[in-house]
Amino acid sequence: MDLWQLLLTLALAGSSDAFSGSESTAAILSRASWSLQSVNPGLKTNSSKEPKFTKCRSPERETFSCHWTDAVHHGSESLGPIQLFYTRRNIQEWTQEWKECPDYVSAGENSCYFNSSFTSVWIPYCIKLTSNGDTVDGKCFSVDEIVQPDPPIALNWTLLNVSLTGIHADIQVRWEAPPNADIQKGWMVLEYELQYKEVNETKWKMMDPILSTSVPVYSLKVDKEYEVRVRSKRRNSGNYGEFSEVLYVTLPQMNQFTCEEDFYFPWLLIIIFGIFGLTVMLFVFLFSKQQRKEN
């Protein structure tokens, strides 16, 4: 009975207009979520012992996976096997049946993986967890809303310059986009956020998001070691992915007399050339004097 009430509610919610760009996906998902809760009161009071969805994520807009927590057993109470079911809206209306998760293995324990055959970017999905036929948790979303790219890879850095005082240095940090992000064809446009800090600090300094895969970092202290990390998100999307592996940057201490040596080095050249010039002049003078005597 609950299932038929859900389908009827969803059908009424979508009957006023055909699915089109003029109707907000967020509004559809909101109504769908409300419908799920209204026919499954347990969704509002999910106890701590029941599994809950923790995250649904798509790394590249072509596949996605959903994860949930383990069930916690108290005494003799025990839940049955946990199953995930999903339904999605086609061009005209919501599908008339809930289908079970296509792959419980590929994304790890307590998860369901949807490969490209089961993934449609702009079509809303509703999913639910069930145990012994009872719904214990549920949510609705579109794949485009849950995009979180994989971490950037291949971080490296090069030294740009050192200040005249030898106290600060500037570096250039470079990286590569996540391998599975199809940025060459424009399917995903990524922006990146770089963060850095000294190794012994706890607070990261955050730079403004950029679209390129390299950025200069200015005024780092020499003889210090820094940690650098980068993460990415879809442009105009609020969901950052995980951070890259940490890149360690060590700036060796410069000789405090380097600048003085650089400053005096031209004078040494001037002295050498001066002595050479005086020697030549003296030789010319002596040679000319000797010539006059011979004449």
TrEMBL record:
GO terms for molecular function: cytokine receptor activity. The chain crosses the membrane at residues 264-287. Residues 151-254 form the Fibronectin type-III domain. One of its GO terms (biological process) is growth hormone receptor signaling pathway. It is found in: Cell membrane; Secreted. InterPro entries: FN3_dom, FN3_sf, Growth/epo_recpt_lig-bind, Ig-like_fold, Long_hematopoietin_rcpt_CS. Coiled coil: none annotated. GO terms for cellular component: external side of plasma membrane; extracellular region. It comes from the Eukaryota. Residues 1-18 form the signal peptide. Keywords: Cell membrane, Disulfide bond, Endocytosis, Glycoprotein, Membrane, Phosphoprotein, Receptor, Secreted, Signal, Transmembrane, Transmembrane helix. Its main location: membrane. On growth hormone (GH) binding, forms homodimers and binds JAK2 via a box 1-containing domain. Belongs to the type I cytokine receptor family. Type 1 subfamily. This is Growth hormone receptor.
